[in-house]
Design a protein that fits this description.
4 domains; BirA Bifunctional Protein, domain 2; alpha+beta; globular
């Protein structure tokens, strides 16, 4: 049974049992708390919390999907027999309909009857095994119900584990979570069934969910190993067409890395990611450059063509021309210095973290490639050198204006005049963020910003193009706030209290224990909350009347699910 049939059988099995088939969401999630989609439930988080109505959106309380997924935490481990970056997650979900009994029985029947496989053992949750550590107070109890259901189905080997192994979630800093039961074939966990009973807050306190839900995840790659009787994932039909194109004398680990990274890169590109030195773009660049470094003399474009051929019938978004164009640009940029960099690396008798960073800085050599020279090289030491370089560069930037460079709060500037301009734009950006929330709703979530002396750039999560009338509304609201000459005030409090206060904040930022909250408008007014309230390091103008006229000069897509606005004050 090939992987395509496995996908179709899974979807058909649950469709016949009242589940709506939902297409895979993008690898770029709408959830700002995570960088990339790492689980099938990512797109369904609002339905578990009750924010959205599954009946209205899907016509059913139950859904099923084959979800594209990506986990950056496994990049350094790729090359063994099990770790991947990109993978496919088979999942069935219920939002307040069925629970443990049905979920376990469905899984049992699919594995035994549809796939014709045996179940060697299962695991269930027992918090008493958490080394004496109380997990979120006394709210968690042993999952005796799941154990009883499994035994009623004839599964006698039921093992118990604590929170580290049999409790899942949340995805991101907060969200639904709950105890799990897992199915093992051999010693490999094939299916993880999560019973979403709780909401984990940002402070890690668990609160019972009003509606209990089911969230399952089964890796297609692992299931294919069992169904196809293979020794590892790289022998399955998901990878075999790629592995066969790689030189037989190439080290097996390097073959696996190339196959995984090229596959992951193709899907990231298809979902709108482009190589860069930031966030998802940096992940893509790491994948591509490592594959290029290991694949000297190998036709990587042909591998990409094979991937689109193998996956394109199921994932229609795989555009070969776009994928090849993006790959060619990065390859052209990197290949020239790669040869020189590898020559320098091979000359060195040993490589420490400082030398490794120098090679990265000078030639773009990936950490993983350099580590082949010194297996004892630690990523944390390499990244410490990276941070040291950033600090030196920052100091140098401040000096390049004859010792008059300025740094204040979140802003740097060449001179006092430039700092004034950037401060005005900084305050205007807060007004823009608040206005976007007022016009478009709370789906808006900041993804990043950049302020120069000429303009502000603001990136945010939103799943569609913004209409001209909406842009005008946002612009008008900001200018009304400027005309009102609101005061700008600041208060200091603990970061968790600040986040709970209703102030806007950037989910991906690492805030200190004590933070500043800037309010635009009187925070003590009886007429309602201030126009804007946001965590920020400053600086800001004293009153909005100092800003001048605000104008949006461009609105566009930055990547899949991310919009970008450029604006000026005149």
């Amino acid at each position: 049974m090939d992987s395509q049939e496995i996908r179709q059988r899974f979807l058909k099995f649950f469709k016949e049992r009242g589940h709506k088939i939902v297409p895979s969401s993008s690898l770029i999630p709408n959830d700002p708390s995570v960088l990339l989609t790492a689980a099938g439930m990512q797109q369904f988080k609002p339905y578990f919390t009750g924010e959205k109505d599954p009946l209205a959106d899907f016509g059913s309380l139950n859904t099923v999907s084959v979800q594209k997924s990506f986990r950056t935490s496994d990049i350094d481990d790729v090359g063994d027999e099990s770790h991947l970056t990109f993978f496919e997650m088979l999942g069935n979900f219920s939002f307040g309909d069925y629970f443990k009994k049905e979920a376990i029985e469905y899984a049992y029947k699919f594995i035994r009857e549809e796939m014709g496989l045996g179940i060697d053992y299962v695991s269930v949750f027992d918090p008493s095994l958490d080394s004496g550590r109380a997990s979120s107070g006394d709210i968690l109890t042993a999952d005796a119900e799941s154990e009883r259901i499994w035994r009623s189905l004839g599964i006698t080997d039921v093992r118990k584990a604590g929170r580290q192994d049999n409790f899942w979630g949340p995805t991101g800093v907060e969200g639904p979570c709950g105890p799990t039961t897992e199915i093992y074939i051999g010693d490999v966990e094939v299916w993880n069934i999560v019973f979403n009973e709780f909401y984990c807050r940002a402070d890690k306190i668990l609160e019972p969910l009003k509606i209990k839900g089911v969230d399952t995840g089964m890796g297609l790659e692992r299931l294919a190993v069992a169904v196809q009787g293979k020794k590892n994932i790289f022998e399955t039909d998901l990878f075999e067409p790629l592995m066969l194109q790689l030189p037989s004398d190439l080290e097996e680990k390097k073959k696996r890395i190339i196959a995984d990274h090229i596959r992951g890169a193709a899907f990231l590109i298809a979902d709108g990611v482009r190589p860069s030195n930031k966030e998802a773009g940096y992940v893509l660049r790491r994948l591509m450059r490592r594959a290029i470094a290991y694949g000297v003399g190998i036709d990587l474009r042909q591998l990409l063509t094979t991937i689109v051929g193998e996956y394109g019938s199921f994932y229609k978004e795989l555009n070969l021309a776009l994928i090849l164009e993006t790959f060619d640009k990065e390859n052209d940029q990197f290949s020239g210095v790669l040869v020189r960099g590898m020559k320098e690396l091979n000359k060195l008798p040993e490589v420490d973290a400082a030398i490794a960073f120098k090679l990265y800085e000078s030639y773009g050599l990936p950490y993983e490639v350099i580590k082949d020279k010194n297996p004892d090289l630690k990523r944390e030491d390499f990244e410490a050198e990276f941070r040291k370089h950033q600090e030196i560069s920052r100091a140098g930037a401040e000096k390049k204006f004859g010792g008059h460079g300025l740094a204040e709060g979140d802003l740097t500037a060449a001179n006092p005049e430039e700092l004034k301009i950037k401060t005005r734009l900084h305050t205007a950006t807060h007004l823009l963020n608040a206005a976007l929330h007022k016009v478009l709703g709370d789906q808006v979530s900041q993804r990043g910003s950049d302020i120069s002396a000429e303009r502000t750039r603001f990136d945010f999560v939103f799943d569609r193009k913004i209409m001209p009338e909406e842009i005008k509304q946002v612009e008008d609201l900001v200018n009304q706030a400027i005309a009102a000459d609101y005061p700008v005030s600041v208060e200091v409090m603990g970061v968790e209290a600040a986040k709970k206060s209703g102030a806007l904040f950037f989910y991906q930022a690492n805030y200190p224990d004590q933070v500043k909250i800037y309010s635009i408008g009187d925070p003590s007014s009886d007429s309602g909350p201030p126009f804007s309230r946001e965590l920020c390091g400053g600086p800001h103008v004293e009153r909005t009347g100092e800003l001048g006229k605000f104008r949006i000069i461009k609105e566009e897509a930055s990547s899949a699910g991310i919009r970008r606005i450029r604006a000026v004050v005149e």
